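Re: weekly structure request thread

Next one in the queue (185 aa):
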Amino acid sequence: YLSFYGIGDRHLQEEALDLIDKTELNALVIDVKSDNGKIPYESAVSLAAEVGAQHPRTIKDVRALMAMLHEKEIYTIARIVVFKDTLLASARPDLAVKTQAGGIYRDREHLAWADPFRKEVWDYNIDIAVEAARNGFDEIQFDYVRFPDSPGLAYAQPSTEPSRIGAITGFLAEARRRLRPYNVF
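Done, posted below.
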């Protein structure tokens, strides 16, 4: 696993590749959207630019990176942190999970969350996943595909067990539908 910063650190990247080369390991998980909502390369997803998700750039040329990894027969997994997204929630408070007082909710790590009920949040994350598939990743690993675990938060619609289950399964069904043409897991 190489984090948003780890993939851009030549030493850490070389250590990971050396470990893969010297062992039976054959896969590499790379942050394509980090816990903070950062994307390590220049993205064509317009909302990514709008919320400032592309700075700093830790991958200069994602297609060249994918080509090099595939040349080494490394299976590439794009990790996309979905609803835990400080950049999106801060830049677009209308898409954020809110406190009962109306402020942007922040978890114990002081990170903000995007509202899982908002289709625009779904589309943003799926657009990033589609772009990762187009860039050559073999698999998409969605992380933080859940609601925050704090009680009493305010969302775009009432938060009941059935509505939360519907939001998560709806997001995953839409992601599967939109990623199907790219033959990624």
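The first helix runs from residue 10 to 22. The mean pLDDT is 97.
Next request, please.
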